[in-house]
User: Fold these one by one.
Assistant:
Number 1:
Amino acid sequence: MLKESGVEFEIIEYLKNPPSAEELKKICIGLGLEPIDLVRTKDKQFKELGLSKKDDRTQEEWLRLMIDNPSMIERPIVSYAGRYALGRPPESIGNILD
């Protein structure tokens, strides 16, 4: 979808270069989500760590868990012109490209 739009983009390999807590906070704010909402709860790592969305954790604790376990970060995340979208469903990306 991004290639078809003609928009230049950069792919960030988050497994090799996980985002910082500040970057994740900025993404959450841009998406209007809490950090727990950016966690892939069906990820193998999430289950292996015995986590639950109902866990009584602070935003900082959820951010740290994503930094330490980047496979748990929901993806793809697209940032364009200061706006953010989750790429699931892919059509949501079109909303920020207008």
Number 2:
Amino acid sequence: MELSSKQRAFLMSLANDIDPVIQIGKNGVSPEAVKSADETFNTRELLKGSVLKTAPDDPGSTAEMLAGRCRATVVKVIGRKFILYRKNNDDPRIELPEA
């Protein structure tokens, strides 16, 4: 799913109030990290995570890898933190502005 700049800005404003719920460490994007992110997406549509300094990849490629494996979209990568979005088709909670 491709997000417009208006939608990205909207999602980033929502993500300001949430804490990172997933950390990617020395194991990188492991199956456990993907499972944890998938479980988080079952209860919310927006996920904030962080990449530790011990991670094997840079934060941008780590966020892309995790998003690809979770069928999510990277909203933004800022420093070592990233924001992912995946629409919940059964019970959408976030109403995105028009593109």
Number 3:
Amino acid sequence: MELLEAGVIRSPRGADFDQRILGIHIKLSEVIARQQPAFMAVESPFVEKNAATALKLGQIRGGILLTAGIHGLPVGDYNPMQVKKAVSGYGWADKSQVGKMVQVLLNLKDPLPSDAADAAAVAIGHLLATRRT
């Protein structure tokens, strides 16, 4: 496995929610155009106790899935426990354990920022779940 690119898409504070989703779509589309991936992997969101937050996460996720569809990318969908188990061997691993395993598995000199490490872990989990033996 090789990490080609990592980053975090951040929306400007105070932007209207529809513009935030559009910004995520545009930036994600740019990465897709640049890297030409064969698939996209996403993590199912942790169920929030706050209904408004859960709804917003679902809307953002919908935008991300639509972006995958527009670009013709199949999507692997994994829950947090599946991702943690795939990367660390333990479904209850904490964020720091997952980050360290991502660094080891990708042979990175420096650790990735937490959100980027989480995304890399989802991609690694997808690769491991779909590899052909």
Number 4:
Amino acid sequence: MPQRLLPATGPIIAPSMLKCDYAHLGEQIAQLDRAGAKVLHWDVMDGHFVPNLSYGAMVIAGTRKQTDLFFEAHLMISDPEKYLDDYIKAGCDAITFHIEAVPDPRSLLKRIRAAGVLAGLAINPQTPVDGVMRVLDDVDNVLVMSVEPGFGGQSFMPEVLPKVTQIRQAANPQTLISIDGGISPETISAASKAGARFFVCGSSIFDQSDFAHAMDSMATLANAASA
């Protein structure tokens, strides 16, 4: 299965579906599509790895039928290997799991890539970068959490930015560096300057009346900061 690739240039603003209006999920996806979104970021929580529950592969599979947008599943779950095939079958284009859940992630990363899916590895704010550094050759995307995972609407943690820069400097230029948590017009410039190119945005999109304006404004700020 060939991989679907992300845009090669410019910052990527990825709406976090954790913050959407679930009563109008289909309408919100169509609205994001019209507003120019390229990626939907699906936060999957199991109530064990993180202290909250969200949705699973069945919801993603159901929405996959109504849009061609790029889907990234962010698996905040204790046993990503057990459920990996469900998210591949659901039509995810990228699957990201946590190094805290799989301390030796290389075989799982290779399994994701073998399925024609982009392989991502996430790291929590308090986790040292050493484990990620050891497997950079097998990773398409490194997701740095800038809040403690599990809940939306948290405040951005600027102390993770040196971690973003360290990973960016060590990784292959083609490796995507993402950041997730508290990303807004007030924080995106610092994250971009540190080396992030993929920005997961929840409240800063869904709490706005104009999704297109919210995404375009943040992309402009990120572009200016990385120039």
